[in-house]
């Protein structure tokens, strides 16, 4: 992350703060699934499936408010100083994470927790688009995919920390929110020492224009330009891939505990290994995306398509591999159980390949948009992703509470996963034309700025 060729304008400590804020915000977002049974017990006195939909309402409200906040703050960030937008969002989110420590048990506690999560979502909504926009302006375009791979590593680590803490700290779940909130608050204060990167400074066409400043900001006419870009539409339509992940992340602990008799601690260990594998996948496919892109400008899209499609096969293997662990099973008992190694190996390999989507998707979305529009586009795309994550738990809760049960919910996840694969083909068709259009505009602006600098 400290590579000067990749991050030219920000110091290592600044990049560290940006990525850590993103990391802990994703840790916070991924606590609800692992805490599902502890929450059900704490608020409703039992872990019966009938109460699962009530927890999905919290997840859905959180995601909805994050989506609205994300688009609003991103448009503001594209008009003003992004650092202060990120600062405000981080402080709001961290404070309401800290407040969770005061949530009481019972129905009143459920309402209290519901409100804190809504406010928490508003703060988190400001974080994602501003971090991606700032990183996009400091990353060398030739290494943009690997730069976003680092960002995706922060996201994966955040998800991992959330899942691991959720698996290990179910009895003291409120303390987990407190710890994450305090850390995030300190990181937010650290933004006071971060320098705002200049918009468009990393673009090749602006190299050598030291005295000129890229002063273009988003305007109403830009929204028409955004939607005439065909790649934008199809990249955003890929939010459907968040529906299966929303279902899986929400139910994975309960699914393995209820259908395979796997203790939360063992699930946590498997999830940990899978997420570490995912980090390797993000870095490997991010590097491959930059390398291949030099020869074929459709390369990032092709890699994202492959990394989205093949994991479906491994997830089907994971679902179809039937095994049941004995009570209080050790890892020795688990590996001696027929089917355990195949199912868990498929899950780990799935994560390695699937995490190659993120850096290539984010890099492509940045490539096909002008610097002053990137924050807004990333926010719209991320908001749509959040809608997918909202729909996922709602579907998961409804199906789990029905006669289809947990197994049926997992097969619905597979259906949406396969559907999403087909949405990459139009991007593959339109990407080169949209890249040419952006490059043409940047060259025209560079020429204009150079003329202004000379005069």
Description:
By secondary structure, the chain is mainly α. It has a single domain (12-454), classed as Growth Hormone, Chain: A, CATH 1.20.1250.20. 75% of the residues lie in helices and 0% in strands. Helix 4 runs antiparallel to helix 5, helix 12 (264-293) runs parallel beside helix 15 (340-354) and helix 13 (299-320) packs antiparallel against helix 18. The chain is globular.
Number of strands: 0
Task: Write down the overall mean pLDDT.
Answer: 82
**H and E string:** HHHHHHHHHHHHHHHHHHH
Shape: globular
Report the top-level CATH class.
Mainly Alpha
Number of helical segments? 19
Layout of secondary structure:
Blueprint: H1 12-29, H2 36-44, H3 52-79, H4 82-98, H5 106-125, H6 127-138, H7 144-168, H8 173-190, H9 220-228, H10 230-237, H11 242-260, H12 264-293, H13 299-320, H14 331-335, H15 340-354, H16 357-367, H17 374-400, H18 405-421, H19 424-454
Give descriptors for this structure:
single chain, 455 residues, mainly alpha, Growth Hormone, Chain: A, globular
Describe the structure concisely for a colleague.
The protein has 455 residues and is an all-alpha fold. The protein contains 19 helices and no strands. The two termini are 38 Å apart.
